[in-house]
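Work Package 3 (structural annotation) set out to generate three-dimensional models for the target panel prioritized at the project kickoff. During this period the team completed the workflow that converts sequence records into discrete structure tokens, so that structures can be stored uniformly alongside our sequence database. As a representative example, we reproduce one entry of 580 residues exactly as it appears in the project archive.
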Amino acid sequence: MAKQNVAEQFVDILARAGVKRLYGVVGDSLNPVVDAVRRNSAVEWIHVRHEETAAFAAGAEAQITGRLAACAGSCGPGNLHLINGLYDAHRSMAPVLALASHIPSSEIGLGYFQETHPDHLFRECSHYCEMISNPRQMPRLLHTAVQNAVGRGGVSVVTLPGDLAAEPAPDKAAETALVTARPTVRPGDEEIDKLVDLIDRAQKVTLFCGSGTAGAHAEVMELAQKIKSPVGHALRGKEHIQYDNPFDVGMSGLLGYGAAYEATHECDLLILLGTDFPYNAFLPDDVTIAQVDVRPEHLGRRSRLDLAVWGDVRETLRCLTPRVKTKDDRRFLDKMLKKHADALEGVVKAYTRKVDKHVPIHPEYVASVLDEVAADDAVFTVDTGMCNVWAARYITPNGRRRVIGSFSHGSMANALPMAIGAQFTDRRRQVVAMSGDGGFSMLMGDFLTLVQHDLPVKVVLFDNSSLGMVELEMMVAGLPSHGTTNKNPDFAAVARACGAYGVRVEKPKQLAGALKDAFRHKGPALVDVVTDPNALSIPPKIKAEMVTGFALSASKVVLDGGVGRMLQMARSNLRNVPRP
């Protein structure tokens, strides 16, 4: 048997760690690794057109599967392109291993062609970032990188000079067992007892949930039922907590709706469950606050805390709920449910007036129809900007759908590359990229990646020929919009020129049929929907700092517009309120 080189050993370890694909763009310093992938049937090389796409795709794959995903970039400019997508993956706690190949080891520090220092550059967006400077560091260094990415939830970066990748791997390298899944963390009894005491003493308790409630839906509902608590959520918590939720009071934040803001401010005790909600001005400063999070560094960094509980949400609630006393008083819960329904009734009127005849098409209408015709287990990837608004308001969670985006990092152009990573996990599952024309055109070259790999991603393009969210920020700040207009082509024609299915929609009556036809198409498809650039109606009480700084708000001072099927859910929950 021929002796392995470092690149071959590297790829073997990735395969043992569960990596199925390596996203990237080939290049000279990366060639030994790409060749090792070619000869390893367990790992597939995914050729993309831009390394930023590679990192976004790996991050999306990791979020969908919960397993380690990987990407790679060649030396200097190649791996520098990874950095934005890696920032997003790291802030989303997606386990990603990035290979940053490097210039020849003998030239490091001498100003060589394409020289950078990736072992320094990626430190801020990773848990672990180190360079292999000697073959004898393998495989221990790569093992350590894998353990950090999986165990801590985020990015690890390994820098590997191209010449070292081609050298023989060390003899008799130990095959260390690899961590491929994170454990659950249970708080100590003392912390559980303190939280029980806070709940039992409080008359009005609100639960506010983030992405850390993934897998804990039943436990959150059981606690809410026992203590008669309204349940609000942050944007990243929506897909995990809003469905089948008779205690739902909506979402807080700039894109929020309903009574979540009131519920968090009018309670006696606010319990933050698995959320690193970044906008501290939306959180109260005059109520008792407890926080439960598996990441101890998240505890207390957004608001003052009366109790910090370090633990996995599901395991914490399994310990907690049997110990708390049952509350019979529903007055606070019922009051918040009514406020929630009333708030949704108020904003939905702006959306319902002749919307099916309005030209250019209301983007709210597009999102609403998309929600109706998309599959029950669809994955939606969402561009940053106004698409975040439409997804937050209109995509209805059901426990099977997924909605992912750059919700913590806030990068443009994320929807298309994330859809690539999501689709590779299951070609039979419907994946829909909700793209804005600004974001789509930024990384439009990777639409060709869909065609090259025959990925059946469906791009629904909200084409208002502007950077809508930036324009809104300028307007609210009292500034004239400037530099926000895009001169766009017929994107459907561009899609057809690339070899994909493309259709342009300019009238509302064409929309449902166009979406259904695109979804039935077996390959990649793009639906270019011309939407109203003026669909940014702003309530009169909104203040500039609410938008430009994301600093102040209440759910009653958010972007105007409809809320889709959430109103139906709110009405249904309200019907269940006992009558005196």
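The chain has 24 helices and 19 strands.
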